[in-house]
């Protein structure tokens, strides 16, 4: 037994959304460390 | 030959050879499931008390670093919650209140939840250390360890005093917030710790009284299950009196002024009065436990108001 096309499409959509969120979180993390560095330099 | 690209993630072989029929064999967690793993509603209280500890501390901190510190406290608390759900997935599946969580509902694999908790723990502690100081980071690391190991794994399944120990686990945020500014821990943050520590048992036991059937089914030795309703009501009253004493202590010791002391005294009186109502109640039916439900709701307001008064006192004095 395998997935129906609907199940497969739903799975791929879920994975795409999750990957997008991971990308955003990693970007935010990089920005966070940039901000920490700048804040520590000026304070 | 398959016309779709091979999917190698979370339970499905590239050939599609595994039996696949619904969420029970195909966990496909969404970002919302990972978010739910952090227990965001509990995190709200942690963020609030941590921020209050930070804002009440003497000294200054760059606003962005203050934001990072609060964020790290929140993420650390989320990591602890993720460990908790990872460890208790089987128990959560037995209770109506928690059965829909990502792990018991089969939407997430156990190893993914554990990896998520590990990553968040390390990231929150290291980031807090770099952003503020390593004293605060050490307190955060200890609080995650305490909640995940000492409370969740060790004591919660073994003793009806589990909530008392859990209270300690949830009481660290103001200490961490304070340490993030000052780099040390003095009497006032320890009293803030004591307030949350003493607040937790009556808060949770009030809830446990009207959901005790769930705990009984899951085999968790909560006080109403092991020692009965009457004893739980007595313990609620005792802890409420202790809480009232601890809550007014910062004023009595001269660490805070009347802006904190007056509302803290009035709120504590109301807390004890509501606890006395619980103590006097005789009902055993959850649906009739109006006094317990009122105490539970008031306890949330109480803690928020006490900590708001603390910050107001420090800023206005």
Distance between the termini of chain A: 62 Å
Question: Based on helices, strands and strand pairing, what is the structural class of chain A?
Answer: mainly alpha
What spatial form of chain A do the alpha-carbon principal axes imply? Answer: rod-shaped
Which percent bin holds the helix content of chain A? Answer: over 70%
Counting H and I runs of at least 4 residues, what is the number of helices of chain B?
14
Largest sheet of chain A: none
Rg estimate of chain A, integer Å: 19 Å
Indicate the low-confidence ranges of chain B by residue numbers. Answer: 1-25
The total count of strands of chain A amounts to 0
Q: Looking at the structure, what is the overall shape of chain B?
A: flat
Cα-to-Cα separation, first versus last residue of chain B: 76 Å
The chain pair forming the largest interface, with residue counts per chain, is: A-B, 24 and 24 residues
Mean pLDDT of chain B: 87
The helix/strand order of chain A is H
Assembly state of the chains shown: heterodimer
The Cα radius of gyration of chain B reads: 22 Å
Weakly predicted, low-confidence segments of chain A: none
Helix/strand structural class of chain B: mainly alpha
Number of helices of chain A: 1
- Which whole number gives the mean pLDDT of chain A? 90
Strand content of chain B: under 5%
């Amino acid at each position: 037994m395998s997935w129906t096309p609907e199940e497969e499409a739903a799975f791929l959509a879920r994975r795409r959304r999750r990957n997008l969120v991971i990308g955003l979180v990693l970007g935010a993390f990089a920005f966070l460390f940039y901000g920490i560095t700048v804040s520590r330099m000026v304070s | 030959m398959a016309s779709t690209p091979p999917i190698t993630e979370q339970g499905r072989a590239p050939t599609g050879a595994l039996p696949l029929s619904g969420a029970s064999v195909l966990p496909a967690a969404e970002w919302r499931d990972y978010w739910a793993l952090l227990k965001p509603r509990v995190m709200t209280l942690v963020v609030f008390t941590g921020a209050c500890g930070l804002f009440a501390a003497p000294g200054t901190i760059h606003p962005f670093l203050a934001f990072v510190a609060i964020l790290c406290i929140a993420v650390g608390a989320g990591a602890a919650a993720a460990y908790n759900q990872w460890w208790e997935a089987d128990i959560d599946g037995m209770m109506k209140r928690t059965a829909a969580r990502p792990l018991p509902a089969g939407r997430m694999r156990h190893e993914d939840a554990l990896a998520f908790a590990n990553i968040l723990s390390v990231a929150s502690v290291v980031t807090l250390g770099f952003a503020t100081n390593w004293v605060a980071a050490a307190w955060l690391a200890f609080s995650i360890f305490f909640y995940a190991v000492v409370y969740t794994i060790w004591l919660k399944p073994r003793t009806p005093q589990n909530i008392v120990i859990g209270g300690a686990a949830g009481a660290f945020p103001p200490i961490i917030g304070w340490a993030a500014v000052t780099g040390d821990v003095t009497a006032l943050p320890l009293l803030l710790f004591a307030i949350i520590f003493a607040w937790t048992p009556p808060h949770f036991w009030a809830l446990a009284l009207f959901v005790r059937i769930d705990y009984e089914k899951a085999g968790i030795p909560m006080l109403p299950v092991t020692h009965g309703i009457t004893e739980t009501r007595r313990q609620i009253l005792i802890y409420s009196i202790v809480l009232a004493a601890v809550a007014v202590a910062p004023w009595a010791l001269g660490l805070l002024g009347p802006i904190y002391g007056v509302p803290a005294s009035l709120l504590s009186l109301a807390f004890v009065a509501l606890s006395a109502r619980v103590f006097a109640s005789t009902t055993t039916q959850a649906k009739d436990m109006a006094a317990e439900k009122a105490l539970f709701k008031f306890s949330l307001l109480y803690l928020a108001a006490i900590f708001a008064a603390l910050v107001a006192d420090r800023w206005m004095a």
